[in-house]
Design a protein that fits this description.
InterPro entries: Aspartic_peptidase_AS (IPR001969), DNA/RNA_pol_sf (IPR043502), Peptidase_aspartic_dom_sf (IPR021109), Rev_trsase/Diguanyl_cyclase (IPR043128), RT_dom (IPR000477), RTL1-rel (IPR032567). This is Reverse transcriptase domain-containing protein. It comes from Trifolium medium. The protein is about 20% helix and about 25% strand. It is an alpha+beta fold and about 350 residues long. Among the domains are: about 140 residues, Acid Proteases (Cathepsin D, subunit A, domain 1); about 110 residues, HIV Type 1 Reverse Transcriptase, subunit A, domain 1 (HIV Type 1 Reverse Transcriptase, Chain A, domain 1). The strands form three sheets. Strands 2-6-7-8-5-9-4-3 form an eight-stranded mixed sheet. The protein has a four-stranded antiparallel sheet with strand order 1-10-11-12, with no helix packed on it. It is elongated and about 110 Å long. It starts with a strand and ends in a 19-residue tail after the last helix. The N terminus is likely disordered.
Length: about 350
């Protein structure tokens, strides 16, 4: 598909043509989101060019009003920067970037064709140089072919065709290249990718994948610890619902002659009402509690945790008075400590919602 781009509505008047001597007002200067972030768009064309023999990445963007160069590229190429009165440039997403300089009459070599243009210094990402309407309007009508992509226009009575670069595949980078990019501020964003070993043969058939937040935490452990925890990652997921029924379910044995315990609900502050309703709704949805007409009733209250969240508590002290206690000898602490003699590794398990997981 081809079309001819008409920029006559954006061509400045004769008083505005000389961009070297006048500074654009914030209303005239605008920058598309693609130009600010370097993301691909049907309205942009990316290709390689050179400035003073150094290769740079060019992004032609009809959604941006002026020509732009990244500050670290201008510094690396030792381009003279003329100071301007600081002004803000609005980006397509509503953010603002500060412009303080202008590089005048910069020679730009594209496929053995020389162009001279001025570039405003803005902290953008992605492409090294963005050529906007300020550059496109100097050619008059031009043809943009999105299927290639490419653009055609007349310059010095010659028909010039610029073909866009295809996206490059990811390539490994050496430590020397990475160091050079860091020193020249050529890295827009830096991401670290960690590989976590998996052992499908040891995973339970009904195991679930580890949540992303837990995966990040798991990657900080020793590889041997990861091999132990990863097959049982489903155990560490947030509990949902009650545990399955087992041969020895927990029972509360009450005194046969004791009357039902029915405690009047506690009064709680009004600011806790929303938190109380939210916690009750979540437990109903998870199947932890259910509506009941039982003659037994105990009061509930909220206790604030150290992290600022609320802990839902039920006061069962009255119920405990009529509960038949289990006779189980609790070992002494000294005996338990003696059994740890010679051990080098210790582990503990903290249940997220202990009473719901018994």
């Amino acid at each position: 598909m081809e079309f001819t781009q008409d920029l006559t509505s954006q061509i400045p008047t004769s008083n505005e043509t000389n961009t070297h001597s006048t500074e654009p007002s914030p209303e005239q200067f605008h920058l598309s989101l693609q130009a600010a972030t370097g993301h691909p768009s049907p309205r942009t064309l990316r290709f390689l060019a050179s400035i003073y023999g150094q290769q740079v990445t060019i992004l032609v963007d009809s959604g941006s009003s002026h020509n732009i160069i990244q500050p670290h590229i201008a510094s690396f190429l030792h381009l003279p920067i003329h100071n301007l009165s600081s002004f803000l440039v609005m980006v397509g997403n509503g953010d603002h970037l500060q412009c303080t300089g202008l590089c005048v009459d910069i020679p730009l070599m594209v496929d053995n064709h020389l162009f001279t243009t001025s570039l405003y210094v803005l902290p953008i990402q992605g492409a090294d140089v963005v050529l906007g309407v300020q550059w496109l309007q100097t050619f008059g009508p031009f043809v943009f072919n999105f299927s290639v992509p490419s653009m055609q226009f007349y310059h010095n009575n010659s028909l010039i065709t610029i073909t866009g670069s295809k996206p490059n595949n990811l390539k490994p980078v050496s430590f020397h290249q990475l160091t050079r990019m860091l020193h020249t501020n050529a890295i827009a964003t830096f991401h670290s990718v960690s590989m976590i070993p998996t052992h499908p043969s040891t995973n339970p058939p009904n195991s679930h994948t580890t949540p992303s937040s837990d995966t990040h935490l798991l990657s900080t452990f020793h590889p041997d610890i990861q091999q132990i925890l990863l097959p049982y990652s489903h155990i560490f997921k947030k509990p949902s619902g009650l545990p399955p029924s087992r041969p020895h379910d927990h029972h509360i044995h009450l005194e046969p002659t004791a009357p039902p315990i029915n405690i009047k609900p506690y009064r709680y502050p009004h600011y806790q009402k929303e938190a109380m309703s939210t916690l009750i709704t979540e437990m109903l949805q998870d199947g932890i509690i259910q509506p009941s007409n039982s003659p037994y009733s105990s009061s509930a209250l909220l206790v604030k945790k150290k992290d600022g969240t609320w802990h839902f508590c039920v006061d069962y002290r009255a119920l405990n008075t009529i509960t038949i206690k289990d006779c189980f000898p609790i070992p002494t602490i000294d005996e338990l400590l003696d059994e740890l003699h010679g051990a080098s590794y210790f582990s503990k398990i903290d249940l997220r919602s202990g009473y719901h997981q018994i």
